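Re: the multi-chain job from yesterday

Posting the exact lines I submitted so nobody has to dig through the queue logs.
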Amino acid sequence: MKDNPSRPLYLVPYYIWIALFVIAPIALIFYFSFLDLTGAFTLENYQNFFSSVYLRMTLSSFWYAFLITVITILIAYPTAYWLTKTKHKQLWLLLIIIPSWINLLLKAYAFIGIFGLYGPANKLLQTLGAGPWQILFTDFSFIFVSVYIFIPFMVLPIFNSLDKINPALIDASRDLGASSFTTFRRVIFPMAINGVKSGVQAVFIPALSLFVITRLIAGNKVITLGTAIEQQFLVTQNWGMGSTIAVFLILFMIIIMMLTGHKEKGGAYNGKTK
Amino acid sequence: MKEIVRAAIAILLVSAILLYVVNAMEKSSATIGGGSISVYNWGEYIDPELIDQFEEETNISVVYETFDSNESMMTKIEQGGTTYDVAMPSEYAIEKMKENDLLHPMDHELLPNLENIDPYFLDLPFDPGNEYSIPYFWGTVGIAFNPTLLEGQTFESWDDLWNPTLEQEVILVDSAREVIGMGLNSLGYSLNSTDMGELREATDKLKTMGPNVKAIIGDEIVEMMRREEAAVAVTWSGQAADMMWINEDIDYVVPEEGSNLWFDNMVIPKTAGNVEGAHAFINFMLDAEVAAQNADYVGYSTPNEEAIALMDPEVTGDERFYPPEELRERLEVYENLGLEMLGIYNELFLEFKMDMEN
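And the result, C-alpha cells for all chains:
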C-alpha cells in the first residue's frame, strides 16, 4: 500500500469530511462567539463570560465532572482488572457495555422512578429501617446516575490496556521477588495508564457538558456549562453567548487532552478496541 | 476488509429499502385527496381523535409534530427547511413572529367558525384584528397543591411559597419568565418589568426560597404531583388540570397579587406549504363540538363560547380554570420584551438556579 502513488486520492473524502464536519463547525462557533444579538461584532460575550455567574458555573461544572470521573475510575479500574482474570471476558464485557446502548433519556426516566419517594430505592431503605429520604433531585442522585452512565466508557479502555499486558511480564516481576502490590504499582499500573487516560477523556469531557441529567435527575439544582449552552441557543436565542461558552468548552477539552495525552510510543496500548 | 464491505452494503441496502417505503407511504397518503398539512403543536395539546376526524372529513392527511417551548418552535421555523402549516405559539411569541415576518395573514372568509369565539379573546393587543392568529386555548399561571400532604396550608399569596414548613416541597416550572415573573408579582411589580432594580430585587427574593425548592423541571411536574412526590407546584393551569384529572386531592389557585394570563393562538407560518389546508384545519378546530371535545381532553380553557355551552357546566363554571372577567383584571399578559430583555431574564434565572440557598 505504501508505494501506491494514488494513495493521496483515497484521502480526499476524509479531508472533505474533516473540513466540513470538524473544521467548519468549530470555525463557525468561533465566528458566532464574536457576534452580539443584532449580529454586530463584539467582545462583550467574552467579557460576559468572565462575569461571576459563568465563572462560578465553570467551577461547579469542573467540580462535578471531577467527582464523577474519580468515582468512575474507582469503580471501573477494579472491574476491568477483574474482567481480565475471568474466563468469559468478552461475555462479561458485553454485559457491561449493553446498558450504554440504551437511550440516555430512557435511563434518566427510569431513575426518576427508582429514586422517587415511593420508588424501590426508598422501599429498600424503609425495610432497613431508614428513610424515606429525598434521593431524587440531590447532588447524590446526580453523581450516582452520571457515574452509572459513564462506567462502560471507563471500563472499556482500561480493560483493553490491561488485557494487552503480556502475562510473562507479570510472571517475571513475581519471579524477581516483587510482591503483588509492587507488581501492580511498578508493572501493571504504568503499562495500563494510557487506558486510564483515555477513559478520563471519555468521561471528564462529556461530564462537563451534561445537561439532560441536570434537569431530570438534579432538578436543575446542578448547573453545568451544557445547561447554559442549551439555554442560550434555544431560549434566549443569543447564539453569540452560546458560542462563547462553547469556545471555552473546546478550550477546556484541548487542555484536558493535552494533560492526558500520550507522550511516549505507548499509544498502541489503547484506542484500539479489541 | 471483506466483512466491512459486506456490512456497508447491508446498511446501504436497508437504507434504500426504508427510503423506498417512506416514499411510497408519502405518495399514497398524498394521493387520497386534499394533500397534507403539517401541524406543529405543544405536547399533549390536542385530542388525537380529532386529527383522525379531520382527516376523514376533509381527506387532508395530517403530519403532527410537537415542541416544548415557544422559543424552540420559533428557532425551528426561523431557520427554514420546515413546512409547518399550522403552529400554536403563545401571545408574546406571535408578536415576535409578526415582527420577524414569519407569519402568513389569516383569510377570515375561510374561517366561518370564528364567530364561535368569545369576543373577549379577539382583537387583543398582540394581534389587532386577529390578522395573523386565531385563539386556541388560554389559561393562567398559578399554584397547584395537594392539601393531603400539607397541614392546612393555603395559598392566597405568592409569599406563602416561602413558608418554612414547605421545605423541599415546591416544584417550579423550568421557564424564566414564569419564575422571575412570580418573583416580580410577589413584590407587587409588573410581570413585564424591565427595571433592573426590580428584577434584581425579585431575583434576590427568589434565592431565599432555595430551601423550599425541590426541583425546577418541565412536563415531568404533572407526573411528580400525581404520584404525590411533591406537595406544591408553580405551573400552568392546564398542567394543574391534568394533575387533578388523575389525583383528585390536588387543588389549583391563582394568588391574589396577580399572575400571568396567557393565550395560545393558531398561526400559519410563512413557510407553510398548504395555506388552504391550514385554514381548513383552523376552521375545523373552531367548530363548537370539536373545540368542546378538545377542551375536555386537553384540560385547558377554551375561548370558544359555543363550545362552552356544550361542555359540563361543572367544568366551565369552575373559577379556577374559567376565571370571570373581573378576576382576569388582576392578571397580566406577557409582552414581547425583546431579545435583550429575554436574555437578562434568562441570565437572572440561571443565577437563581445557581445561588439557591440550600
